[in-house]
From TrEMBL:
Lineage, top ranks: Bacteria, Pseudomonadati, Bacteroidota, Cytophagia, Cytophagales
Segment forming the signal sequence: 1-31
Calcineurin-like phosphoesterase domain residues: 72-276
Matching Pfam families: Metallophos (PF00149)
Keywords: Signal
Keyword Chaperone assigned: no
This protein's record includes keyword Signal: yes
Alphabetical list of PANTHER family matching this protein: METALLOPHOSPHOESTERASE, CALCINEURIN SUPERFAMILY, SECRETED PROTEIN
Gene Ontology MF terms in the entry: hydrolase activity
TM region positions: none
Taxonomy, superkingdom: Bacteria
Designated name of the protein: 3',5'-cyclic AMP phosphodiesterase CpdA
Length: 367
């Protein structure tokens, strides 16, 4: 009888262990089954992809393939997600003109960094238009000591034929050269909305602010939805950035850009920026706010970055995060989702490929 009780106890214990193993297995399978690859909510939607600051990807050789994975993922999903536009809001490199990286803060020269980010975007050349702006790290030696930049050498007008087809207006940069640092691209959405994407240099000069206003006010663009791309504009508290301490003169930051350009406009309705962040704090990299312009139209303003995620400033560059903006068939609703092709590439990490907090996944409307 005693032996039988022991046998029953052992059997009961074994069953509990087996049940636990089955539970863990089913949980793992369930987590894997929950992963859904990005897809359109409607077959009649179109998508714009927003890429964060690439600087931490390109400053280390080990990180550079992650950013190329991101642009390759975009290329592979152009048809599946009906991708019509890609934007990147600056700090393409960590240093614009450094020849002796210390191996700790960076192990790639500026030339290697510019070549890397340019090559990554080459995955999209001839396939889909993309608009990049120049951030503070894209100027000077290390961080906008001057307004001299190598931007035009690596992102000339003829790099991507799809960009060149849409290009309509160009302004002179600080060195008196017409470049895509300040440029306007005309685009018509599949639903027929006429849009004008305008890129602006970091902390745009007053002359650039005036140029953008003059372009947006041209009669031929009065019915267009103007989309403004700049680098420094919003902070993580959803506030316009008032001032930053960079050694350049005549620079306008978020509050000045809003007061001088966005609010007085009649057709600027979307503003996108990057620039902000803190080590491994996703909330510190994002922001969103809605204001009203002089024509009583909503201006939707979004900042998105990821460069200090994945290990901080010396980490992997940002865990591959990007934003998918789906423009719905009603011609006004935009659905925003935050996704990582880096995590999605392997079943082992796919459960981490989506961020679903209210500041990561939301919708807004365009008038």
């Amino acid at each position: 009888m005693k032996k039988n009780k022991n046998y029953q106890a052992i059997t009961a214990s074994s069953l509990k262990i087996l049940a636990l193993l089955l539970f863990l297995w089913s949980t793992t399978v369930s987590a894997q089954e929950k992963y859904q690859a990005p897809q359109l909510s409607s077959p009649d939607s179109w998508t714009m992809i927003m890429l964060p600051d690439p600087q931490t990807y390109v400053k280390f050789g080990r990180n550079q393939p992650i950013f190329e994975l991101m642009t390759t993922w975009i290329s592979e999903n152009i048809d599946h997600l009906n991708i019509k536009m890609v934007i990147c809001t600056g700090d393409l490199v960590e240093q614009n003109e450094m020849i002796n990286p210390d191996g700790k803060a960076a192990n790639q020269t500026s030339k290697q960094q510019w070549e890397s980010v340019s090559n990554s975007f080459s995955q999209l050349d001839g396939r889909v238009p993309y608009i990049t702006v120049a951030g503070n790290h894209d100027y000077g030696l290390k961080n906008i000591e001057t307004r001299k930049t190598n931007f035009n050498a690596y992102f000339p007008v003829d790099k991507n034929l799809q960009n060149q087809k849409l290009l309509r207006e160009v302004a002179l940069n600080a060195e008196g050269t017409p470049t895509l640092e300040n440029a306007a691209f005309e685009f018509t959405s599949p639903q027929g909305r006429k849009m004008l994407f305008i890129s602006m240099e970091f902390a745009p000069r007053d002359t650039v602010i005036a140029w953008v206003k003059s372009v947006a006010d041209l009669p031929k663009y009065k019915d267009h939805t103007v989309v403004l791309l700049t680098h420094s504009y919003l902070n993580a508290k959803n506030e316009h950035i008032v001032k930053e301490n960079y050694p350049i003169e005549n620079g306008n930051y978020g509050q000045a850009i809003f007061d001088k350009l966005v609010k007085p406009s009649t057709n600027i309705q979307l503003v996108f920026s990057g620039h902000i962040g803190a080590p491994d704090d996703f909330r510190a990299h994002v922001g969103f706010r809605t204001d009203i312009n002089s024509a009583d139209k909503k201006v939707q303003q979004m900042v998105f970055n990821a460069q200090a995620l994945g290990g901080g400033w010396m980490g992997n560059g940002g865990d591959g995060w990007l934003r998918i903006l789906e423009f719905m068939p009603d011609n006004k609703t935009v659905k925003v989702k935050t996704f990582s092709p880096f995590f999605a590439i392997s079943p082992t990490t796919q459960e981490h490929a989506w961020r679903t907090a209210d500041y990561d996944q939301f919708s807004f409307e365009i008038d």
